[in-house]
Write a structure and sequence with these properties.
The complex is a heterodimer of chains A (224) and B (846). Chain A is of the alpha+beta class and 224 residues long. Chain A has one domain (36-204). Chain A has helices at 7-25, 129-132, 157-166, 175-181, 193-207, 212-218, and strands at 5-6, 48-64, 73-84, 96-101, 104-105, 107-108, 117-123, 144-150, 188-190. In chain A, the strands form two sheets. Chain A has a five-stranded mixed β-sheet with strand order 6-7-3-2-9. Chain B has 846 residues and is α+β, with helices and mostly antiparallel strands. Chain B is globular. Chain B folds into four domains: 11-206, no CATH class; 210-345; 356-636, Alpha/Beta hydrolase fold, catalytic domain (Rossmann fold); 640-845, Jelly Rolls, CATH 2.60.120. In chain B, 13% of the residues lie in helices and 29% in strands. The chains are: A alpha+beta (224), B alpha+beta (846). Chains A and B meet through β1, α1, β6, α5 and α6 of A and β25 and α5 of B. β1 of chain A pairs antiparallel with β25 of chain B.
Chain lengths: 224, 846
């Protein structure tokens, strides 16, 4: 059994992460406000400027994708970092525009409103191919956009398909996605979602260091 | 609190008038007080209502062996007679015996009379059974039977003072009572008749042992001149009031006033020695008159409320009338029954005595937990568990202010990762799974130090924003059988406390049901903002759905982000902003009283949830300069409390009829009854939207109330139906009120709204109290702009709770056994000359 973190240690992790990753974060270190006034709604439009990081993963133990009504089991997908206009990422309690990438709802891991960098999980949509006739595409060919505000847990394949159709005129992610995939991160095989979350936490520290407290909270000792 | 007195019984009355069903607590209390009588050295025996002279042998037949001889009466049945019944007790000092004559034809006159002996002779269509005893009979006032065919006679002792001295009701004397009445049309033809008779032996209950009485509180400058309280902050002056009008035997008595450590009833039964916590009692001579002449300070704020981790230090207040240093016959004790008479409350903002350990760990995906516990948990037995579920975009490590504070008072607090991004269902799932995992894996956390020390049947769920709705949804799912935890059940979750919750779901999915529910709202919230256009943003809707005990605290100037300690924006809009640090102090100030009341039934804690912030604020609560901090408290007893609901506006849609079936009369303007739901998209005043500013319900919700306004003297009155007329087992008159935002009358007044509340009995005696007497009134809406033109945010209800005893103290002739009406009176005296008011939940509560 690992030893749980004490309060001073919790802070040390956060401070350590900030110091180590500050340089890498560069200009992204601008700490924006935490939850603030509601962002402008947009549906469909794409304040997604590009892909900073992308890595395909597979899991030995799938988990349910809770960001859509069907709760498909996720055994593969992309762990990505998206560059998005910050005001679109301010979290709020009411309905938020649902972020879609390709034909799939995106699971947001961090807020990203301070850095403009959103760490996210994009389950492979082919998991639903039989049910929804969704065609899998390369990451670069997919579009990413904010759809109509909704609770993601209540949207289903038909809703997503309608939103994707409305976004057909948007440009796909294109070069930035290809560059991100070519940047040296090979597909990774992981045991389970916990391992995936640990990878995501490391990305938060690197790309959104203002949210290192959240990352630290994802890396606390596991008691099993 | 109940007096140390026996309760009236009258078996002969069962057929006609079923006795009221008393709540378990009242019965238990009665049992305990009777038990104490048994412990007293010379218990007096009371005898009330021995019924005799029934109509089993009548002048021309038409017998009725359960009442008087048959009459045409109320039911038109010539074979059923009038029944004389008694309620209350025979303690002539408290003088609350009430005689009720029923079964008379409505509108016919009758009179109760009494004598010192008995006889039996035909008179009219009945039998006269009261003799003159050599000194003659005495009769009470001639009265007219009401629409139900009843006559009520109360205050017998007081009325007897107008009789000849030989007929003054005194302890130890036995008197016989009967009623004569007119009964035209009966086949026997005499046109008048009599009821059965009752014998009553009067006592002085105080002679049997100490009496329980309200004594501790604070002085008021106007009627009712004194407020009896359960809580006093440790730096405040504690006063006592003795009321010779209530206890005539006190007049002129010089006695010793003791403040003693709280004892329960059983302890008082075996230990009557008085030891004053101040070192010595203080001597006081009771003046004539009433309590206004007998108010005096017993502590100037020197007593400490800080003891261990308790909310405060409980005291019983004793007036030792014979100065023998013992609690004995004739003495008064505030706190005689279980629970203190008054609690000196500590600074609830300051940390408690326990050193806190914080630990971070994870049980897996979405099972990250931040737990706070007392370092000496091993010596604390089992303590309640407080679970915190954060909001969307928030972090489970952002609730140190709650975790450290409550753990320092001996609670275990666990804040967990909450999956709010997808929605409320997922959030509720992580509340459920984290609670379950925590309880099932105590052996893994910090080496198992918590194992065996969690009171897993005392779980409190707190949630913020989406998490605030998530905890309610989580409870709802277990309640509805949609989710079955492994390590707890719904009955183990004893309190839900939502902080600025969203309300995505309707009542079918987000419903606290009968569990106790507590709500925190910030009027400056720029996220879950309470705007009229969004049900999701109207936190109060969950409160309205609660069917258990419920309470809410609304802080004007507090934003959504102020409730956590994650830094960044406070997500606030509007004037007089409180900020995060001061918000945390406000929260801490109320957390301990909230848990003390809901978890332990501590009435001092309830004081903080019910008394206005203007008169009782947590010690250590911040101020804002210039003073602009407004806090509104809302509280409602649960349906199982035994309360009597005069009008909840939910079962009668016509404003002229109350939900209890009585008439509602008024001279106010623009009276409208309906759903507490702003029906358009702005807070701009519009006469077509009379419920402007109400954010309490959505389609299909049943929460309803009334609104009205006035610009000249006006009133609104509720008839008290017969089945609610006896409120002697109740302690409070409770209602909730709010101002109507942006209404011209509200804008014109723009300050605390005040009015008078009047109770009137069936004899016409009335007692009136200005709500401002206790300090403050109904607060003006938060002066936030937006959502239309003008200033003023949503309507904020606050509960007004007035002790029924205050009305009687203000007017001793008021008979609380036979209330006839409740009236609100506007624009009189120094009260608001104009205003717009929303009103709901008129109740008499224990």
């Amino acid at each position: 059994m690992e030893t749980p973190l004490r309060k001073p240690m919790k802070h040390l992790v956060a401070i350590f992460a900030c110091v180590i990753l500050a340089a890498a974060a560069g200009a992204a270190l601008v700490r924006g406000a935490r939850p603030g006034p509601a962002p402008p709604l947009a549906a469909p439009e794409t304040p997604v400027n590009g892909v900073l990081y992308a890595r395909h993963f597979t899991l030995a133990q799938p988990y349910p994708h809770t960001w859509r009504a069907e709760r498909p089991l996720v055994s593969s997908g992309y762990l990505v970092v998206l560059d998005i206009e910050r005001e679109y990422l301010v979290p709020r309690q009411g309905l938020e525009p649902v972020l879609i990438l390709g034909e799939q709802t995106v699971e947001r891991i961090n807020n990203g409103d301070g850095s403009g960098h959103l760490v996210a999980i994009v389950p492979d949509a082919h998991l639903l191919r039989d049910a929804d006739r969704v065609e899998q595409r390369d990451l670069a060919e997919r579009r990413s956009f904010f759809a109509t505000p909704a609770l993601p847990e209540e949207v289903d394949g038909a809703w997503i398909a309608a939103q994707v159709e409305r976004a057909a005129s948007l440009a796909p992610l294109g070069a930035s996605a290809r560059e991100a995939l070519a940047a040296g991160t090979s597909p990774v095989q992981l045991e389970d979602r916990v391992a995936l979350e640990h990878l995501a936490a490391e990305l938060i520290m690197r790309y959104a260091p203002d949210e290192s407290e959240q990352a630290a909270g994802m890396l606390v000792p596991l008691l099993r | 609190m109940n007096s140390l007195k026996p309760t009236a019984t009258n078996p002969g009355a069962e057929r006609r008038r079923p006795r009221p069903s008393y709540p378990t607590g009242v019965l238990l209390n009665a049992c305990l007080t009777l038990a104490l009588i048994a412990l007293a050295p010379t218990p007096a025996q009371a005898q009330v209502g021995g019924a005799f002279c029934h109509g089993d042998v009548c002048p021309c037949g038409y017998t009725d062996p359960a009442a008087g001889c048959g009459n045409l009466g109320h039911d038109g049945d010539p074979a059923s007679g009038a029944l004389l019944d008694a309620s209350g007790d025979a303690d002539i000092v408290s003088d609350d015996l009430t005689l009720l004559v029923s079964g008379i034809a409505p509108g016919q006159v009758g009179v109760v009379f009494m004598g010192a002996d008995t006889m039996d002779t035909p008179l009219g269509d009945g039998r006269l059974c009261i003799g003159n005893g050599g000194a003659g009979r005495a009769r009470f006032s001639l009265r007219q039977a009401d629409a139900g065919g009843s006559i009520v006679e109360a205050g017998l002792g007081a009325q007897s003072k107008a009789f000849l001295p030989t007929h003054l009701l005194r302890p130890g004397d036995t008197w016989y009572f009967q009623a004569w009445y007119r009964d035209p049309g009966h086949p026997c033809g005499a046109g008048h008749n009599l009821s059965n008779a009752l014998s009553v032996t009067f006592i002085d209950a105080g002679a049997a042992g100490p009496l329980e009485a309200e004594l501790a509180g604070r002085s008021l400058p106007v009627v009712p001149y004194f407020q009896f309280v359960a809580a006093v902050n440790e730096t405040d002056t504690l006063k006592v009031a003795l009321d010779p009008a209530r206890y005539p035997s006190l007049a002129g008595v010089t006695g010793d006033l003791y403040l003693v450590e709280d004892r329960d009833l059983a302890t008082w039964g075996v230990d009557t020695t008085l030891i004053d916590v101040r070192g010595a009692p203080q001597t006081y001579t009771v003046q004539g008159g009433n309590l206004a002449s007998n108010r005096f300070a017993v502590d100037l704020g020197t007593l400490s409320g800080t003891s261990g981790a308790a909310l405060g230090v409980g005291l019983d207040v004793v007036f030792d009338g014979n100065r023998d240093g013992q609690a004995g016959p004739g003495d008064l004790i505030d706190g005689l029954s279980d629970g203190p008479g008054v609690t000196i409350v500590r600074d609830t903002v300051a940390p408690g005595p326990h050193v806190v350990i914080e630990t971070l760990y994870s049980g897996g995906s979405w099972l990250g937990q931040n737990t706070y516990y007392p370092r000496d948990i091993g010596s604390l037995g089992q303590v309640p568990l407080i679970v915190i579920s954060h909001g969307n975009g928030h972090n489970y490590q952002w609730y140190d202010h709650i975790g450290y504070h409550l753990a320092s008072y001996g609670y275990v607090v666990m804040s967990h990762q909450n999956e709010t991004g997808p929605g409320i269902e997922t959030a509720s799932t992580t509340t459920l799974t984290n609670t379950d995992w925590f309880l099932g894996n105590l052996a893994l956390i910090d080496g198992g130090i918590l194992d065996g020390h969690i009171a897993d049947q005392t779980i409190v769920w707190m949630g913020h924003s989406r998490g605030g709705e998530g905890i309610v949804r989580a409870y709802d799912r277990i309640h509805d059988g949609l989710y079955t935890p492994n390590n707890f059940t719904t009955s183990d979750v004893v309190l839900l406390s939502s902080i600025a919750p969203t309300v995505f779901f309707g009542k079918a999915r987000t419903n606290p049901h009968e569990v106790d529910y507590h709500l925190w709202v910030g009027s400056a919230d720029a996220d879950v903002s309470g705007v009229p256009t969004s049900n999701t943003a109207q936190s109060y809707q969950i409160l309205e759905r609660s069917a258990g005990r419920r309470a809410a605290v609304t802080y004007q100037g507090v934003g959504h982000g102020s409730y956590h300690d994650g830094g960044g924006s406070t997500v606030a809009t509007g004037p007089c902003q409180v900020g995060r640090t001061k918000t945390h102090k406000l929260m801490k100030g109320y957390l301990l009283p909230m848990l003390a009341y809901f978890l332990d039934g501590d009435l001092a804690g309830r004081d903080f949830l019910t008394r206005h912030f203007e008169e009782l604020r947590p010690l250590g609560a911040p101020t804002i300069q210039p003073e602009c901090l407004v806090v509104n408290m809302e509280f409602k007893e649960g349906p199982n409390s035994g309360k009597l609901v005069l009008d909840d506006f939910e079962s009668e849609s016509a404003p002229e009829i109350s939900s209890s079936g009585g008439a509602v009369l008024s001279s106010v303007d623009n009276l409208h009854e309906g759903q507490l739901n702003d029906n358009n998209s702005t807070f701009t005043w519009n006469a077509a939207d009379p419920m402007n500013g109400m954010t309490r319900g959505r389609d299909n919700d049943i929460t309803t109330g009334v609104v009205f306004d006035w610009s000249a003297p006006a009133w609104i009155e509720w008839e008290v139906p017969a089945d609610l007329a006896d409120v002697t087992d109740m302690t409070w008159l409770s209602l909730r009120a709010c101002q109507g935002t942006r209404h011209p009358m509200t804008i014109a007044e723009l300050g605390d709204l005040t009015f008078a509340i009047e109770l009137r009995d069936s004899s016409g005696s009335a007692s009136s109290i200005d709500i401002s007497a206790y300090g403050g009134g109904v607060e003006e809406p938060y002066q936030r702009t937006g959502e239309g033109s003008g200033s003023g945010w949503g309507n904020e209800f606050e509960t007004l709770r007035l002790r029924l005893a205050d009305f009687r103290n203000a007017q001793p002739a008021l008979n609380l056994r036979s209330l006839a009406a409740l009236r609100l009176v506007f624009a009189t005296g120094a009260n608001s000359t104009e205003g717009r008011l929303g009103l709901d939940d008129l109740e008499f509560t224990p």
